[in-house]
Amino acid sequence: MMNGSTIIFYLLAALTLVSGLLAVTTRLIFRSAIYLLFSLIGIAGIYFWLNYEFIAAVQIVVYVGGIVVLIIFSIFLTQQAGEQLPRPTMGRQLFAALAAFCGLALVMLQLYKHNFTGTDKPAVEPTVANIGNQMLGVEEGGYALPFEVVSILLLAALVGCIVIALKKDTIMNKEHGKQNDEVKER
Amino acid sequence: MPLTSAFSIPFSRFDIHKMWSLTDITTNIHDWLNETFSPTWVLIIEMVIAGIAVIGLFAVLGLVLVIMERKVSAWMQIRLGPNRVGPKGLLQSLADTLKLLVKEGLTPGGADKFLFNLAPIIALVVAMLLMAPIAFAKDFQLWNLNIGVLYVSAVSSLMVISILMAGWSSNNKYSLMGAMRSGAQIVSYELSAGLSILTIVVLAGSLNIPDIIYSQADGWWIFKGHIPALIAFVIFIIAVTAETNRAPFDLAEAESELTAGFHTEYSGMKFALFFLAEYVNVFIVCAIGATLFLGGWMPFHIGNWEAFNHVMDYIPSSIWFFGKTFFLIFVIMWFRWTFPRLRIDQLLNLEWKYLLPISMFNLILVTAIAILKWHF
Amino acid sequence: MFIVKYIKDVFSGIKSLLVGMRRTGYYFTHHKEIITEQYPDNRDTLKLPERFKGEVVMPHDANNEHRCTGCTACELACPNGTIKVVTKFDITPDGKKKKAIDKLVYHLELCTMCNLCIVACPSDAIVMAQTFEHSVFDRAELTKILNNPGSRIMDGVE
Ligand code: SF4
Ligand code: SF4
Predict the structure, then answer these.
(1) Residue A175 reports pLDDT greater than 70
(2) Calpha distance A80→B168 (Å, rounded)
(3) pLDDT of residue B6
(4) Tally of domains within chain C
């Protein structure tokens, strides 16, 4: 007997899977981005269903509000409206399917091999305070070190972006400068 | 599962006020339903009630806010405003809705039909989702979730998707330009809105909306948080004005340059949905502002003036909430009818050179205040 | 100093915005200032400003006399060819011929109310009237003859 909760889970799972499938099969690139969005929203919905509200909200902020918007922006800047993408070649389709299957197999293998053990310890409430303490804790089970490493990675990425952005600017400035000098000489 | 809390649980640990509360009614309904139906049915019925309530609130808000905007704009421009339909023109927005309802909803040729028709629905659904965690009165909330404030800022970032979708699928250069502008605008102003929300989260020590409201029982944060809270409030108001695409930040629609921006091609009911979503979004951001900075449904209290405080307690909490929210809405309308529209580079300058650095510095200041317990 | 200028910028910006808001706030609270005319309702009490230009008319006095000498200065001044002066020759009592107007034809549908004809007129024979409800069902009705039938020129106007 299915209760309401299970039905909602299957609805969310169906939303995620169907829109994920549509995202890779549609040949209109903007629609593909929108289907990806729905797929990500479905995942956020599953987090909500699990009562991991914080993760769900972060999923929406990062993926939907950030990444999909970026993708849409790059589509806006590079593509013509209403154009259909060419159908991918048979070989590519095959390899893509193979890659997807390998990924799925890997995950399923891990899941089946892992021995899930029950525990009678009370569950840790997934509140923001707990997540924060865990994330920055230095004692047993704390994630301070990985957290810092990830922040350094992000910092490096930021600095890299700025360097790339600056470089172009200086080249252009140099050219401008040359022109200005020429003008001055005259 | 989260939806069981469709009607919020009474918050007994802060029993400071003997204010009249809607909790009794909701718990009575809940109990009665539980006695009569099975749990699944109770859940479904409660969801239906909540849905009807939200849709009803939507309709009323749309009508009220549109007529309010038209009257406010008229008076600020030394005009009379609508004054023909109904007493003092108060039924004007009803007549307009009727007109939009019977108007043909055209879909332009060459448009992506599916996305074109989906965009206004998404706009509306996002606005509806945003209604969930807002506390409309004492202990009266659709969904009391742990991360209320974060939820609102997360879901409101979906707003931009519907605009981008509408702009792209219309197959019209004005729509596309409007959509791109509004994308750039919303993505950048989300940052300073988020940071100014964070200052209050730091002060209150919680993301939960009832917690934040109860933390203001002895004074609203805008008074308790000294000048930094005031700065955060100003930045919040500016940023949310930009996020809801209203003048002076209405580059997305910019009538004089882009005809109507992303909704150029929309007509009839589809246009009405966008219109409604815009006004409901204004209501929601103002409700959040009122909750964070002005104490939500908390009455106004002054120190030890017992008599005064008692009188204030007699005013129902929902009136406090709606009063504050409508005050903020009025302020945002005041902005709209006073200031000229910004250019896109000025808009981005304002965000990245002024609002963001100031709000970051402000956040550090507030964190110091919160750690040293300097706030009242 | 950079930082001083920055802070000054912020404060002067806020101040200028507040000045604007004070003005609109004043209008919002002072409904006496409202300038809207609810036109068809207030037709009886409607008062147009003196400078309002509605159409060109030629005033006549009680003896059905006007001041137009038929000099055609207005016809020449009009950029749109709105005015046509049709002249005739009156015989004065002492037997001389004298130029006078037969008809001064005015095409309201062509007029842009630019006031040039009125400025050009040397004898102040035409003025701007304040009527503005000009819509008619037949275009021919817009072609008007400004001098009244049987009117003649005022004595002493040359
Ligand atoms: S007002 Fe101007 S357009 Fe009209 S008749 Fe006189 S000169 Fe011509
Ligand atoms: S109206 Fe004036 S300008 Fe025109 S013909 Fe008569 S006198 Fe001359």
Answers:
(1) no
(2) 10
(3) 38
(4) 2
- The set of long-range contacts for A6-10, using a CB threshold of 8 Å and a minimum separation of 24, is A8/A49, A8/B1, A9/A46, A9/A49
Question: Per-residue pLDDT tens for C19-28?
Answer: 988 888 888 8
Tell me which residue has tokens 């893509």.
A96
Q: Are residues C30 and C60 in the same domain?
A: no
pLDDT of residue B12: 36
Predicted local distance difference test score (pLDDT) of residue A82: 61
Burial status of residue A163 (CB atoms within 10 A of its CB: 0-12, 13-18, 19 or more): exposed
Within 8 A of C17 by CB-CB distance, chain B residues are 338-339
Q: CB contact, 8 Å: B337 with chain C?
A: yes
CATH (domain of C97):
3.30.70.3270
What residue of A is the nearest CA neighbor of B116?
A31
| Closest approach atom of ligand 2 to CA C124 | 2
Instruction: Please tell me the predicted confidence (pLDDT) of residue B91.
Output: 84
Q: Which residue, by CA, sits nearest to atom 2 of ligand 1? A: C114
Surface-to-core class of residue B324, CB atoms within 10 Å of its CB (0-12 exposed, 13-18 middle, 19+ buried): buried
Please tell me the distance in Å from B354's CA to the nearest CA on chain C. 8
Stretch (H or E) spanning A50: none
Distance CA C148, CA C150 (A): 6
Q: Are residues C143 and C69 both part of a single domain?
A: yes
Nearest-CA distance B65 → chain A (Å): 27
Q: What is the pLDDT of residues A54-69, one digit of tens each?
A: 888 888 888 887 888 8
A123 has a pLDDT exceeding 70 = yes
- Residue C118 alpha carbon, nearest atom of ligand 1: 6
Asked if residues B232 and B196 have their Cβ atoms less than 8 Å apart, the reply is yes
Q: In this structure, what DSSP letter does residue A62 have?
A: I
Q: Same structural domain for residues C65 and C111?
A: yes
pLDDT for residue C68: 85
Q: Is the ipTM of this complex over 0.85?
A: no
Q: For the segment A84-98, what is each residue's pLDDT rounded down to a tens digit?
A: 777 778 888 899 889
Which residues on B lie below 8 Å from C21 (Cβ)?
334-335, 338
Rounded to whole angstroms, the Cα distance separating C158 from C156 reads 6
Nearest alpha carbon to residue B151 among B313, B288, B273: B288
Residue C45 in domain: no
- The best mutation among C76, C106, C126, C147 to test binding of ligand 2, ranked by most ligand atoms within 8 Å of the C-beta, falls on C126
What are the helix (H) ranges across chain B?
23-36, 39-76, 92-102, 113-131, 148-156, 159-169, 173-204, 209-214, 221-224, 226-243, 255-258, 268-293, 306-314, 317-336, 344-349, 356-372
pLDDT at C5 over 90: no
CB contact under 8 A, A48 and B179: no
Quick check: is C104 in a domain? yes
Same domain, C147 and C72: yes
Supply φ then ψ for residue B70, to 5 degrees: -70, -35
Tokens of A150: 């990830």
Q: Which domain holds residue C6?
A: 2-35
Residue in C with minimal Cα distance to B337: C24
Give chain B's largest Cα–Cα span.
68
Q: Which parts of chain B have pLDDT scores under 70? A: 1-23, 303, 374-376
Q: Are residues C71 and C102 in the same domain?
A: yes
Q: Is there a domain that residue C138 lies in?
A: yes
Q: Mean per-residue pLDDT for C55-81?
A: 87
Question: H/E element holding B8?
Answer: none
C43 within domain boundaries: no
Same domain, yes or no: C11 and C73 = no
Q: Are residues C68 and C103 in the same domain?
A: yes
One domain, residues C79 and C137: yes
**B contacts of C35 (beta carbons < 8 Å):** 78-79
Q: Kindly give the distance from the C-alpha atom of residue C140 to the centroid of ligand 2, in angstroms, as a whole number.
A: 23
